[in-house]
Batch of 4 targets.
Target 1
Amino acid sequence: MFYEKVLCCALCILLCSCATVSRSAERTILEHQRQADRLEESIRVRDRAIAECIRELADVTARSERMGGDIDSVIRELDVYNAAIQRLLRAAGYTADSLQDSEESADRDS
C-alpha cells in the first residue's frame, strides 16, 4: 500500500512537470518565431529602401552625365544626389551621430 502511494505521487509529479515544461517550451518557440518574422520583415523593408535609393542614385548619375556644363543644373543634381545619399544612409541604419563620429576619426587618422 505504501509503495502504491509513492508510485502514484511520483507518476503525478512526472506528468504534471512534463506538461508544464512542454507548454512553456511551445510559448518560447512561438515567441522566437514571431521575433524572427519581425526581423525578416524589417530586413525586407530595409532592402527595398536601399534598392530604391540605389536606383535613384543611378538616375542622378545618368542625368548628370547627360548634362552639359550648366552650373545651376549641376548644383541641383548634387543637392538631389546628397539627399539620396542621406536617405540611403538612414535606410541602412546609420545616423548623423555615427557619421560624424566616423568623419572625426578619419580626420584624426589623416
Target 2
Amino acid sequence: MKKTLRRVLAISFSVLGTVLALYFGGYWLFIRPVRYLYTSLMAGTLTSKHLLICIVKIFLASTAGGGIWVICDIIAGKFRDK
C-alpha cells in the first residue's frame, strides 16, 4: 500500500474514532441522560428507576467513549508508518 494512502487511512480512522467517541460517549450517554433528568425533575415525573439508569449511563459515558476511541486508534495504528 502506498505511503500516502496509509497516512490518509490512519488519519481517517483517528478522526472517526474521535467523532464516534464524542457522539456515543458524550451525547448519547452523558448529555441526553442529564437533559432527561432535568426535564423530568422539572415536570415532576422522575422515578427512582429512571434516576438509577441515568446515573449509571453518566458514570459509564467516559468509559464507553474512551473504549470506542481506543479501538479506532488501534485500527489507525495498523496503518501508521513505523
Target 3
Amino acid sequence: MNNFLIPANTKSGQLILGVFKPFDLILLGTGVLITLTLLMTFPMSDTWQVVVVVIPGLTCAFLVIPVPNYHNILTIIIEAYTFFTNRRNYIWKGWCVKDVKEVKDGK
C-alpha cells in the first residue's frame, strides 16, 4: 500500500530557475561582462574581431548548457578529467573474494 511518487528531478528545486547553480551564473555573468567590455573597447571593423570579442561569452554559455544525466558541460569536463587523472587499478574486495582461487602464471 506504500505507493510513493518521487519527482524525476528532485534536485531542480535547489537550483536557481531549476537549472543553474550559483557558480554557473557567476561564470556566465563573468563571460558576458568580459564580452560586453570588449565590445565597447575594440572597434568592430572586421568579422574576425567580432568573433574574437564574442568568444568569452560563447565559451561560458557553452559550459553552462544543461545536459541530460549530468548537470552541464562543465560537469562532464570535470568528471572526465578526474576519471583520466585518478587511479584506475581497481582492487576487487567484494563479498565473494574468498571464493575465488588465486590465479597464478596468468592461467
Target 4
Amino acid sequence: MKKFTIIIILLILVVMVSGCEKNSKKNVIINGEPVNTESMKHKHCTREATAQDDIKASLNYDIYYTGEVLNIVESEEKVTSSKAANLDLYEESYNKIKSYYEGLAYYDVSVVRTNDSVTNRVLINYDKIDIGKLLDIEGEEDNVVENGVAKVDKWIELAKKFGTKCTEVTSEV
C-alpha cells in the first residue's frame, strides 16, 4: 500500500510539473541539426521497471508527432546502483546495442557512465532517417514503421506492451 501511494504521488508530481511548464516545445538537436518541434504534438511517456540487487531505473520517453506520423523519439533510460558490477553490465549492454546503429544518420546514441549510474540517451529523427537501413537493423516485426513511415499509434501500442504510460504535453500561451 505504501508503494502504491508513493507511485501515485510521483505521477501527480510529473503531471503537475509537465503541465506547469511555460513553453514545453523546444528545438531537439539530432545529428547536429536543430529540429523545431513547435508545430508537432508532444507526449511524455514513462515506464516502470522492477529490478533487483540494488538497481533502480528511470525510463523516460518524449515523442513528437504530426497527425499519425511519428517525427521524433527522445529516450532517456537511467539505471542507478551502488554496485559497480551492476553498472558494468548495463553499460556493456547499452554499448553493444549502440554499436548496431553506428553510422546510421539521425539515430544519435550516447551512453554515459558515472560512479552510481549509466544513462542511455537515444534521439531518432524519423523524418530524415534512412528507414530501409533502420529496418535492416531492427527487422520489421514489432516495429513502428508501416509502409515506410513511422506511426505514432504503433509506437504507443508497442510501448504499452512494456508498461509505458503517456500523457499529452501542452504549452501555455
